[in-house]
Specification:
- The structure is a single chain.
- The chain has 414 residues and is mainly alpha-helical.
- It has four domains: 99 residues; 125 residues, no CATH class; 84 residues, no CATH class; 89 residues, Alpha Horseshoe (Serine Threonine Protein Phosphatase 5, Tetratricopeptide repeat), CATH 1.25.40.
- It is built from 21 helices and no strands.
- The N and C termini lie far apart (49 Å).
- One of its GO terms (biological process) is DNA-templated transcription initiation.
């Protein structure tokens, strides 16, 4: 069992690296063949490692994948001359270098920018990124994105067809395209993290592997000087600060714990420090992003020794800034919550009256939950219970549903 867990762990962490390196060697036109080759290597490891895992499992996998490259090259008639060059010429040096740490990172970055290429449909980008960079299976992507498996397969197929049809290059963007291409990449990484932090999975409230993958990708981006800017550091800060609270978000039975009742001693200090330092670094750059504001909001929560000591006025100002840059229903809903915390329910009501729960799609239960909070605040318990019932009916996640049921049951005894 432990060996299988190690293989699964390696698969998650090595898949993207191997696919990226092989695409750099063979080209994007062979992407399906390459994915099959990497799968073969892991299948081989699963059989060979049943009794004993090699001392350096990662090195074993790298060597096996490298040998698989040679096998593939030999099978491709068109590349016969190429393999000879790789084996006996100066190209062999370059080939071997592709498996060194710096070159692996470079290949992964090329893969990230390819997966988030503006010529790909935005709906396809995140699914394709999760598959090629994160090593997620189609069923895992379907679960993570609340899609049917058939929809995921269509999106992955469409992304690959677009790559071939538009003849996309496996390269880092040119300087003049850097800003807009980086914006796309950061947005996809942000979405991956959010799916982990507020999972739509019907059983899991938190998907730590998604959060971890988003953090890893952001660190990878920051390793290259040309990708360092205020936005990339601010996103890293936001992900670190939010990740620091993951251990306190659920109890031992995976039940949801809201911010008010979280044990703040469980917030992970090294990640908090990383996040705070990254935000300071972000502020040294001239560009500004919504990630700066979101990280500042989380910082306010982390600075407060208790929930009651939270500086809600400062958080309100930050949310208003965020609304100016990014007006959407989630931000408006958050402002309504802050008004309730400030004991200004009338202002919360004015906002809630303007919002459409359908705009939140699968997360419409959040709207009904805030409505319930508002009615509880003004003392209308019946209406609060009614809205909690609506929230319970619409929430897809079991842990969230259990949390809302507890809230509703507590009001029934008032």
């Amino acid at each position: 069992m432990q060996n299988q867990q190690l293989i699964d762990h390696l698969f998650r962490h090595q898949y993207g690296k191997m696919v990226s390196i092989l695409i750099r060697i063979f080209g994007l036109k062979h992407i399906e063949l390459i994915e099959d080759a990497v799968q073969d290597t892991f299948a081989k490891a699963t059989v060979q490692w049943r009794k004993k895992v090699p001392d350096n499992a990662e090195a074993w996998f790298t060597t096996a994948a490298k040998n698989r490259v040679i096998d593939l090259l030999r099978k491709l008639d068109a590349d016969k001359s190429r393999i000879e060059k790789l084996n006996y010429s100066a190209s062999a040096i370059a080939f071997n270098n592709l498996f060194e740490k710096e070159e692996i990172q470079d290949s992964e970055l090329r893969m990230i920018f390819t997966a988030c290429h503006p010529k790909l449909d935005p709906k396809d980008q995140i699914a394709f990124a999760l598959k090629t960079i994160g090593g997620f299976s189609s069923s895992e992507i379907a679960t993570a994105l609340l899609l049917k498996p058939e929809t995921v397969k269509k999106r992955l197929t469409r992304a690959k067809q677009t790559i071939l049809k538009r003849k996309l290059n496996f390269e880092l963007p040119a300087k003049k395209q850097l800003q807009s291409r980086l914006h796309n990449v950061l947005e996809v990484v942000y979405l991956i993290f959010n799916e982990g932090f507020h999972s739509n999975h019907n059983k899991l409230l938190v998907r730590k592997e998604l959060c971890g993958e988003a953090l890893r990708l952001t660190k990878l981006i920051l390793r290259k000087e040309q990708f360092r800017c205020g936005a990339s550091y601010a996103l890293f800060s936001l992900l670190c600060l939010n990740s620091s609270r993951l251990g306190a978000k659920v109890d031992e039975n995976f039940n949801s714990i809201d911010l008010k009742n979280q044990d703040r001693s469980k917030w992970y200090l090294p990640l908090i420090n990383l996040g705070v330092n990254a935000l300071e670094k972000a502020n040294e750059y001239p560009d500004f992003s919504t990630y700066h504001i979101e990280a500042a909001i989380v910082t306010e929560h982390i600075k407060a020794p208790t929930f009651e000591a939270t500086n809600w006025k400062q958080i309100l100002e930050l949310y208003k800034q965020l609304e100016q840059h990014q007006e959407n229903t989630i931000v408006s809903l958050s402002i309504a919550v802050v008004f309730i915390q400030l004991n200004e329910p009338q202002n919360a009501y004015l906002i809630l009256q303007k919002l459409e729960p359908n705009a939140l799609e699968q997360r419409s239960y959040l709207f009904y939950g805030v409505k319930a909070k508002y009615y509880h605040c003004v003392g209308n318990i019946d209406k609060a219970i009614s809205y909690l019932n609506t929230a319970i009916e619409s929430v897809p996640n079991f842990a969230e549903k259990t949390y809302l049921i507890k809230k509703r049951d507590a009001l029934l005894t008032v």
